[in-house]
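Q: Please design a sequence for this.
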């Protein structure tokens, strides 16, 4: 069913006509000819939409609308009005009606309006339930979300926060790896000591070594004084090394030695300096594959890979998208001093449909832009970037009912494996786990697919090219 509709009209024949037509359109209609009875029904039962005439004896449709929106604001009200009485419909909108349709009723238009109202209610219910769950749940740090994958993540982070083990945070770019690292630090026994962060991909090797280990006066040009490295600056606290997978091979053994010995030698210095630091590293690369390719040292990998935390991509977090969007709207509305209070239903549907390759960072930027540009009190579809407005979800199509369209089981497997690999941004370790394959089997299949593709591209006589 598309939704439960309560019809209110003093003409019984109109009620019966609407009931029949809406029932054929897969709504679940109920009707009454009394506004007083309708008010009692919405108090006792649950409806997705109230559809009411405006001109009725006794309690008018406008008064009914006002009382329903005051007592059951979760139920959207759609009003029916004669073509020449639009000012009455406007009055109903002012007291809280969701929308209106004019008589004589165009049933196709009415069905569309009712379906929009049902969707509106469902979205509002979902956000309200999720907000309640967030308030009642412990969560973890400043992280937002109540999807199953996030609840499992909170549980894992709570268990590892008080340990001294090194942590490797893995996840796509924009998933919030530094936020997770800070949350681990704030919930650990080191929370009253420094949290120091560095992006290993942002600095060349020579500067990275100086940043991590420090340097002595005169060690190189412009080294006019001694400087403490980040290992020493983070003493008794946490050092967060982001994008550790981008570290050069020549720098990796120096880091490994520092972690093994718990001491570093500043550049140009003669003496070593000991430190007490918990290391949290992060990467958006598949480090195990990097090890196999010879781009990352195996001994360093196992040294930082004591506990691994996998951050889910935003597209895997369901309605968390709306919770995060609502949070960003409130933040940017305050920062920009804009009277933006929320997101329209149509815009919310677009946000839920989009795949978010840039994850939470991309969502944050989209909402910041929308709050800055919107001319309304709620973000509309037109306030979203074109790529989100026009996005169409991709599906793995394996064939239809026509035997000529059906494909072999090997082809079904190939398409699904490539789909999973695309969904996890090429991370073969994660893809293998999702597929239930060992990594060697996955590599072998991918190699076969590449050879198959190359053979067909090279075959000029192939039927597929004619």
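A: Design:
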């Amino acid at each position: 069913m598309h939704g439960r509709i309560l019809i209110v009209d003093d003409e019984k024949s109109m009620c019966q006509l609407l009931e029949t037509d809406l029932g054929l359109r897969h709504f679940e209609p109920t009707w009454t000819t009394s506004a007083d009875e309708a008010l009692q029904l919405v108090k006792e039962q649950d409806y997705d939409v109230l559809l009411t005439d405006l001109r009725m004896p006794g309690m008018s449709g406008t008064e009914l609308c006002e009382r329903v929106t005051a007592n059951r604001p979760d139920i959207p009200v759609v009003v029916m009005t004669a073509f020449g009485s639009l000012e009455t419909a406007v009055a109903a909108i002012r007291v809280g009606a969701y929308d209106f349709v004019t008589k004589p009723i165009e049933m196709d238009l009415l069905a569309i309006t009712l379906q929009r109202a049902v969707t509106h209610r469902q979205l509002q219910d979902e956000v309200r339930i999720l907000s309640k769950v967030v308030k009642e749940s412990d969560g973890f740090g400043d992280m937002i979300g109540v999807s199953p994958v996030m609840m499992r993540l909170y549980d894992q982070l709570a268990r590892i926060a008080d340990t001294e083990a090194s942590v490797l945070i893995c996840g796509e770019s924009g998933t919030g790896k530094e936020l997770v690292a800070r949350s681990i630090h704030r919930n650990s026994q080191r929370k009253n000591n420094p949290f120091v962060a560095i992006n290993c991909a942002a600095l060349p090797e020579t500067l990275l070594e100086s940043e991590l280990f420090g340097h002595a006066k005169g060690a190189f040009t412009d080294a006019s004084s001694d400087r403490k490295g980040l290992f020493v600056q983070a003493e008794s606290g946490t050092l967060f090394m982001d994008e550790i997978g981008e570290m050069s091979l020549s720098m990796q053994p120096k880091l490994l030695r520092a972690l093994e010995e718990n001491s570093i030698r500043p550049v140009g210095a003669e003496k070593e300096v000991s430190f007490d630091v918990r290391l949290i590293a992060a990467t958006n690369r598949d480090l195990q594959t990097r090890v196999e390719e010879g781009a990352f040292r195996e001994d360093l990998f196992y040294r930082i890979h004591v506990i691994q935390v996998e951050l889910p991509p935003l597209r895997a977090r369901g309605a968390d998208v709306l919770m995060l969007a609502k949070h960003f709207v409130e933040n940017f509305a305050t920062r920009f001093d804009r009277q933006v209070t929320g997101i329209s239903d149509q815009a919310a549907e677009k946000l839920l449909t989009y795949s978010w390759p840039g994850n939470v960072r991309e969502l944050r930027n989209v909402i910041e832009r929308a709050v800055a540009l919107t001319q309304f009190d709620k973000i509309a579809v037109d306030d979203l970037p074109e790529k989100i407005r026009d996005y169409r979800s991709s599906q793995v199509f394996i064939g239809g009912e026509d035997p000529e369209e059906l494909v072999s089981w090997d082809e079904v497997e190939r398409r699904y494996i490539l789909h999973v690999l695309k969904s996890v941004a090429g991370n073969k370790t994660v893809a293998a786990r999702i597929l239930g394959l060992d990594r060697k089997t996955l590599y072998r299949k991918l190699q076969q697919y590449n050879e198959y593709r190359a053979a067909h591209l090279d075959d000029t006589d192939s039927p597929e090219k004619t």
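Q: Thanks. Anything notable?
A: The longest helix spans residues 107-136. The chain has four domains: 4-131, 148-310, 315-389, 409-465.
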